[in-house]
Amino acid sequence: MSQPIVSRPPSPKLGVFSPPFDNADADVILHTSDGVQFRVYKIILIIASSVLKDVLSSASSSTQPSHPAATGIKSRQEENTIILDIKEDSQTTERLLHFCYPSADPALHTLDDVQGVLEMMKKYEMIEVIERVRKLLVTPHFLELDPLRVFAIAYRYRLEEETRLAAKYTLRHPIFGPFVSDLDHIPASAYYRLLEYHRKCGIAACALTADFTWFPNSASRWVWFQCDDCVHHSLSWPLADGKIYEVNSWFIEYMERARDALREIPCSKTVSDPLLLCPSLERAAGCPTCRFSAFVDFSVFTTDYFSAEVEKAIDAVDLNIPF
């Protein structure tokens, strides 16, 4: 596996960047907004970007570029070298060029890094290169910590697969979390559809707590159906085998807590939260019948069945959002 490239800060004074962007025989110089020069090869830029292809072709023939995105790029020629003045800073430019060159991809440590590179690639229409960056946007670290930011960035750049994946990860957090400035760059309708998706997933997941027919055929063996020493719930419940069973009240109390939790955070991890399990396990521990089986049966139930059913329920809910 290739090692990520560690970005080296450029010299604060005007100068040529470090290798591989300092070759004297390079035929293009990118002059960034913070006064750093990148010596690069024209053929690489032409292959990577349709906008830069237009700019470089126009500079060589002394004509005006036809692409709208090329109008803000100033170009001039000195001997055999074309100099392009770009508005991006050296740090973002370095990361972008590493994606264009046949070398290891640079390390993008923050979502700001990813967003900056995506913005520059979108501006210069680097379609093929974007395909490599979009995978970095949905790394587990970003999805776990900032799924709403990932959602907003992905939707902003019309990355449908990444938008849908990030939307599912937002289910692991309360529906109203801290504001993120990336929402300023997407329409309110997209955020509304995300909230609607969250609500519908909560409804679908909560439905599992009031209907036990999805339990496996072996469910009647679990201790909360077998024990006659504990207080039973006032209602009896049908299972997948078509029979009606009495069930211990401490199990129903767990399902009621799970229902409330799933309404707020509709994801599979919610049902195995110790805060939901502990009150029922403590009650089961006081029963001579349940104390020996409750923990194991709960582990099997939540891990092998309940979590899987929650995943199935939310997977059936569509993120109704246009691209």
Automatic annotation (TrEMBL):
Q: Which InterPro entries does the entry mention? A: BTB/POZ_dom, SKP1/BTB/POZ_sf
The protein's name in its UniProt record: BTB domain-containing protein
What superkingdom does the record give? Eukaryota
Q: Which organism is it from?
A: Serpula lacrymans var. lacrymans (strain S7.3) (Dry rot fungus)
Which Pfam family is one of those matched by this entry? BTB
Which residue ranges traverse the bilayer? none
SUPFAM superfamilies associated with the record = POZ domain
The residues covered by the BTB domain are 26-101
Cross-referenced Gene3D superfamilies: Potassium Channel Kv1.1, Chain A
What is the phylogenetic placement of the source species in the record?
A: Eukaryota, Fungi, Dikarya, Basidiomycota, Agaricomycotina
